[in-house]
Amino acid sequence: MNSFLIKNIDEWNVFAAQLVTRLQPSMIVTLSGSLGVGKTTLVQAVARALGVKVNPRSPTFSLMRTYRTSDGSSIKRVLHVDAYRLEKSSDVLALDMDEELSEPGTVLFIEWPENLQVWMKKQTGPRLQITISIREDGAREVTMS
């Protein structure tokens, strides 16, 4: 388990650059933490590091957003899912995440993975768990396992 301290927005970019080196196609990256802790900010920083041309927006209402990368790495596409609004496990079926994840070069970032536990248990590919918390001084503590 690795732990990192993020004190400002620029440090998200440094962390994202390190994270990108660990990503691999078909990987699921779970993002846990309270509202406003920086889950979407992290996805935005990763997208920049991968050469995504647009700034990712939170998929809270659309549930899933897709971004094409342009950095020439093995990661060709970033899927960003926000499961905060899902009320039951079967709600994930409409997203067709199994099919989406099977596209070559895809990495999937999931905010609020605890709302997708049934689906997550069926996944056998590579996984990375990231937990973000806010310290009293406002810095973010990021734990990766």
Features:
4 helices; alpha/beta; 7-stranded mixed β-sheet; 145 residues
Instruction: Output the helix-strand order.
Output: EHEHEEHEHEE
Low-confidence stretches: none
End-to-end Cα distance = 5 Å
Helix segment tally: 4
* Proportion of helical residues: 10-25%
Give the averaged pLDDT, no decimals.
91
Structure description:
This protein has 145 residues and is an alpha/beta fold. The chain has four helices and seven strands, in the order βαβαββαβαββ. Helix content is 23%, strand content 28%. Strands 1-7-6-2-5-4-3 form a seven-stranded mixed beta sheet. A hairpin with a 5-residue loop joins strand 6 and strand 7. The longest helix is centred in the first third of the chain and has 12 residues, at 9-20. The radius of gyration is 14 Å and the shape is globular. The N and C termini lie close together (5 Å).
Entry summary:
The chain has helices at residues 9-20, 39-49, 97-102, 117-121; strands at 2-6, 28-32, 64-68, 77-82, 106-111, 127-134, 140-144.
Give the arrangement of secondary structure elements.
Layout: E1 2-6, H1 9-20, E2 28-32, H2 39-49, E3 64-68, E4 77-82, H3 97-102, E5 106-111, H4 117-121, E6 127-134, E7 140-144
Helix pairs in contact: 1-2
